[in-house]
Design goal:
EC 2.4.1.-, seven-stranded parallel sheet, 45% helix, glycosyltransferase activity, 13 strands, UDP_glycos_trans_CS, six-stranded parallel sheet, transferase, Glycosyltransferase, alpha/beta
């Protein structure tokens, strides 16, 4: 649907510097390039992230009209940033905005719009100062967006009532707020904890600034979160577009030789259909070693076949000792390909949003073990709303650990193809798989929304003067 206006358009994309944000941003940039042959996109990353992407061969896979530009490494390294999460957030807030603004000012081709990650607190102001439309990209579930958007209206986790007579009488209660049925009062207590005081302060800034953006894009799709998406459209003063599921088609696993790739492919090919539990806890937030050991022993007790992507060397050694012919441990894999393999019948996950969307896209039920932030809400969506999995966080002991016995029982239940609950989860997972594929096909909800965004951008409907009236 190329137009004369679009042929002169240039979008500058600025992702938050983290794997879970850069991957979906790149997917959306690919989608934009595919939707309109006249649209050019420049993606701004740090020098370190440019090197990581180059090592994974990503630049060579991008369309000609999507290119990378760099700013200096003004923030802590991606390697080990999880050790000081708050410090990393503060560095991004304080140090990254200025070099991005300098890059915007020196670009040979002026930006007609800036697509900036919602979590970049300075993003909207950077565009507004230059009269450039700002399109905010939210890379987490719409449900979590809506929960944070209403941060000032959250009822207290205990104590007197909040606005509109809302209150939490117990930590087990769901938030008494429309379309937030997958957020519990216990989640609020975590978000309001002293450890998250500074991150939540930045979140408040983010959502205050967001009201000045020209539009917001979501990497979810309407059929998956219709209630939250409808709720957002009612409170935001700007247009919203759902363009997901934005599934990363590239992986950042580093250089692995051909033998390793063939090894896990051959192993998966040799396993019975739906018999393998795929396990990955992401690449950022770490899980306590004591919990990882419980997972390892719980798997051993369940006698279920498993395929584990393990980063912890101690756990890798333990796993290799117990795996025998029922398990395979690797340092990296192409996650979406593994989830889509016929032998994989379940996914033990930390429930990061990218991983959750990939499981939905592949139609695989989830055993959720969330650690932090949106993962808590994602796990509740999986178990309570979509009913395509089991939330292990609800079964922790007083010390916060899920026991090997609990894990063994949950794994056995999820992977038992004769279990009624398991069959129902698989049926619902298959329904969501079909819905996710339909959403991005021609005529689907996300296809229509993406093309509406491109058209609105080309026709100037998202210009600052237009949207500020």
């Amino acid at each position: 649907m190329a137009t004369a206006a679009a042929s002169r358009r240039h979008v500058v994309a600025v992702p938050y510097p983290g794997r879970g944000h850069i991957n979906p941003m790149l997917v959306v940039c690919r989608q934009l390039a595919a939707a309109d042959a006249g649209l050019a996109v420049t993606v701004v990353v740090t020098e370190e992230w440019h090197a990581l992407l180059a090592a994974a061969g990503v630049p060579a896979t991008l369309p000609d009209r999507v290119r990378l530009a760099t700013i200096p490494n003004v923030i802590p390294s991606e390697h080990g940033r999880g050790a000081d999460w708050v410090g990393f957030i503060e560095a991004v807030h304080a140090k990254m905005g200025e070099p991005v603004e300098r890059l915007l000012d020196r670009l040979e081709r002026r930006a007609d719009a800036v697509m900036v990650d919602t979590y970049l607190t300075w993003g909207v102001a950077a565009g507004a100062a230059r009269g450039i439309p700002v399109c905010s990209l939210w890379t987490m579930p719409a449900t979590f967006f809506l929960a944070l958007y209403h941060l000032d209206r959250w009822p207290p986790a205990d104590g007197p009532e909040g606005e509109e007579g809302q209150s939490c009488k117990s930590l087990d209660q769901y938030i008494p707020f429309p379309v937030l049925s997958s957020v519990k009062c216990s989640d609020i207590k975590i978000f309001r904890s002293l450890a998250l005081e500074l991150p939540m302060k930045r979140v408040a800034q983010v959502f205050s600034n967001l009201r000045k953006a020209q539009c917001v894009l979501f990497v979810s799709f309407y059929e998956l979160e219709s209630g939250a998406i409808n709720g957002i459209s009612q409170v935001l003063p700007c247009p919203i577009y759902t363009v997901g599921p934005s599934i990363p088609l590239m992986s950042l696993g580093g250089n692995l030789d051909k033998i390793q790739r063939e090894k896990y492919s051959d192993w998966l090919d040799a396993q019975p259909k739906n018999s393998v539990l795929y396990i990955s806890f992401g690449s950022y937030v770490s899980m306590p070693s004591s919990q990882l050991e419980e997972f390892a022993m719980g798997l051993h007790d369940s006698a279920v076949r498993f395929f584990w992507v393990a980063r912890d060397k101690a756990v890798t050694t333990t796993l290799q000792q117990i795996s025998s012919d029922k398990g395979l441990v690797v340092p990296w894999c192409d996650q979406l390909k593994v989830l889509s393999h016929p032998s994989v019948g379940g996914f033990l996950s930390h429930c990061g949003w990218n991983s959750t969307l990939e499981a939905v896209f592949a139609g695989v039920p989830i055993l959720a073990s969330p650690v932090a932030w949106d993962q808590l809400v994602n796990a509740r969506l999986v178990s309570d709303e979509w009913k395509i999995g089991i939330n292990l966080r609800e079964q922790r002991r007083e010390d916060g650990i899920v026991s090997r016995a609990t894990i063994s029982a949950a794994v056995t239940k999820l992977m038992d193809l004769g279990n009624g609950d398991s069959l129902e989860m698989r049926r619902r997972a298959e329904e969501l798989r079909k819905a996710s594929h339909s959403a991005i096909q021609e005529g689907g909800s996300s296809w229509r929304s993406l093309n509406s965004f491109v058209r609105d951008l080309a026709e100037g409907k998202l210009n600052v003067a237009e949207t500020s009236q």
